[in-house]
């Protein structure tokens, strides 16, 4: 029987991104996919999930399907982030979407990790708390963040400023320069960049290329997720 692999038996997105970043930066994705998710599907016939009756016969259920869906959702956020990362020149809209996608991957990863450890605490389908119990993704995500001392928070704060705050001031030339992660609040007054006669002195100190800043956020996010998959899922 042919050995099942992500490159041959994943969906079109998984096959496309396998050699681009999964195999080199997120190899635990395929390991967990093989061990946990493939048995939930009809492979090699098709990639769809088994019926409730078939899952029950295997001793599996809706919580397992929920984990599988979250696992794939992490990947799709990362795939879009990778596309942005690969652009030769990232503009402000790219940076904003890129950070939103990276934090989306983080959120879903936190949710998955907590649910995997404590499946009995959370309803597999409800997205928010209903009543007195812990039954939603918001609760599971927050629980994991607190247990893990709020990882990647500097990236999340940067995303918050990009999404919820005023536009990030930037210097545009051959490439775009923006405040580095952790000091963005110092430049809420745009004039410190737009009307600064000593602006050149800030490059490489407070201002860095958008591509470099996003690449760093990517490395931290994917590195965290890969480590947590190794330690908790495989």
Mean pLDDT: 93
What is the overall shape? elongated
Helical residue percent? 55-70%
Judged by helices, strands and strand pairing, the structural class is mainly alpha
Number of discrete helical segments: 10
Question: Could you spell the SSE succession in H and E letters?
Answer: HHHHHHHHEEHEH
The first-to-last residue Cα distance is 24 Å
Number of domains: 1
Rg is 20 Å
Share in β-strands: under 5%
Largest sheet: 3 strands, antiparallel
Widest sheet: strand ordering: 1-2-3
**DSSP E strands, number:** 3
Low-confidence stretches: none
Please give a quick description of this structure.
The chain has 234 residues and is mainly alpha-helical.
Description:
The chain has 234 residues and is mainly α. It has one domain (6-168, 211-232). Helix content is 57%, strand content 4%. The chain is built from 10 helices and 3 strands. The chain has helices at residues 6-9, 12-25, 28-37, 52-57, 62-85, 92-117, 137-147, 153-164, 191-194, 210-232, and strands spanning 171-172, 176-179, 207-209. The chain has a 3-stranded antiparallel β-sheet with strand order 1-2-3. Helix 6 (92-117) packs across helix 8 (153-164). The longest helix has 26 residues, at 92-117. The radius of gyration is 20 Å and the shape is elongated. It starts with 5 loop residues before the first helix and ends with a helix. The mean pLDDT is 93.
């Amino acid at each position: 029987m042919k050995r099942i692999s992500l490159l041959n038996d994943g969906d079109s997105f998984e096959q496309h991104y396998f050699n681009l970043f999964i195999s080199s930066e997120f190899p635990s994705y395929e390991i967990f996919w093989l061990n946990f998710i493939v048995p939930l599907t009809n492979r090699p016939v098709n990639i769809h999930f088994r019926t409730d009756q078939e899952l029950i016969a295997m001793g599996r259920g809706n919580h397992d399907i929920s984990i599988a869906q979250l696992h794939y959702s992490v990947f799709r956020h990362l795939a879009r982030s990778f596309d942005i990362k690969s652009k030769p020149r990232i503009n402000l809209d790219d940076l904003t979407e890129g950070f939103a996608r990276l934090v989306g991957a983080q959120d879903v990863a936190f949710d998955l990790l907590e649910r995997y450890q404590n499946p009995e605490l959370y309803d597999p389908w409800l997205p928010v708390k209903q009543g007195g119990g812990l039954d939603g993704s918001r609760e599971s995500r927050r629980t994991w963040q607190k247990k893990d001392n709020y990882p990647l928070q500097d990236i999340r704060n940067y995303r918050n400023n990009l999404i919820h705050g005023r536009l990030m001031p930037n210097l545009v030339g051959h490439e775009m320069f923006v405040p580095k992660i952790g000091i963005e609040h110092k430049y809420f007054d745009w004039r410190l960049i737009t009307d600064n006669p000593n602006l050149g002195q800030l490059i490489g100190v407070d201002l860095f290329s958008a591509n470099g800043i996003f690449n760093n956020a990517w490395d931290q996010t994917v590195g965290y997720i890969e480590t947590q998959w190794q330690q908790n899922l495989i």
